[in-house]
């Protein structure tokens, strides 16, 4: 099979990973969970599974996901043709609970995000507060939910490795 030109991949990445202008809480959980599920695997793999993941997690309604129990973990693990990572599934459940708590505490999740003095402080708090959120997933998440992030060219110098999908996602947007 012939590889797609880089320009085509970039357009597909931006189409599958658009910025969300006014995210609601389910958008926050969906984007954060997608960032976690993408870690260590091909983004295309998760892109191909995304509709099934949305169904398995009830469109990432945090009130529903936060109440998931062992039966729900098994149900998701048994869902055909999705990534079967129990630790990532459990992270989504724990992160839903944390999101709801911060939403209550700050009167909105956006207020929580904007309560930090800088991107660096916010990214560090996301890494401490939420399971399996690292430097790359924090940037991905914040970019997608339309929060302020450093320009890609500056940010990429602060993380290890090359991140072509992030580059494709932000190209022309910052």
Structure description:
By secondary structure, this protein is mainly α. The protein has a single domain (about 25-155), classed as Orthogonal Bundle (Endonuclease III, domain 1). Helix content is about 65%, strand content about 0%. It contains 11 helices and no strands. It has helices at about 5-15, 25-40, 45-55, 60-65, 70-75, 85-105, 110-115, 120-130, 135-145, 150-155, 165-170. Helix 1 (about 5-15) crosses helix 11, helix 2 (about 25-40) runs antiparallel to helix 6 and helix 2 packs antiparallel against helix 9. It is globular, with a radius of gyration of 16 Å. The model has no long low-confidence stretch (mean pLDDT about 90).
Largest sheet, described in full?
none
Helix-strand string: HHHHHHHHHHH
What number is the mean pLDDT?
91
CATH topology: Endonuclease III, domain 1
CATH architecture: Orthogonal Bundle
Number of domains: 1
Number of helices, where a helix is a run of at least 4 consecutive DSSP H or I residues:
11
Report helical residue fraction: 55-70%
Tell me the total number of β-strands: 0
**What's the overall geometry?**
globular
């Amino acid at each position: 099979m012939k590889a797609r030109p880089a320009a085509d991949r970039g357009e597909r990445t931006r189409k599958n990973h658009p910025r969300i202008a006014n995210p609601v809480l389910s958008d926050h959980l969906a984007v954060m969970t997608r960032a976690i599920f993408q870690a260590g695997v091909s983004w295309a793999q998760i892109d191909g599974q995304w509709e099934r993941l949305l169904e398995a997690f009830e469109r990432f309604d945090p009130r529903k996901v936060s109440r998931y129990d062992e039966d729900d973990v098994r149900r998701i693990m048994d869902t055909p043709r999705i990534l079967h990572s129990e630790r990532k599934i459990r992270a989504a459940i724990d992160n839903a609970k944390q999101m709801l708590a911060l939403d209550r505490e700050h009167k909105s999740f956006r207020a929580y995000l904007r309560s930090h003095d800088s991107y660096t402080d916010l990214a560090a708090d996301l890494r401490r507060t939420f399971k399996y959120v690292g430097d790359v997933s924090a940037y991905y998440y914040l970019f997608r939910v339309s929060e302020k992030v450093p320009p890609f060219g500056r940010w990429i110098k602060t993380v290890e490795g090359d991140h072509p999908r992030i580059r494709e996602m932000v190209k022309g947007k910052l």
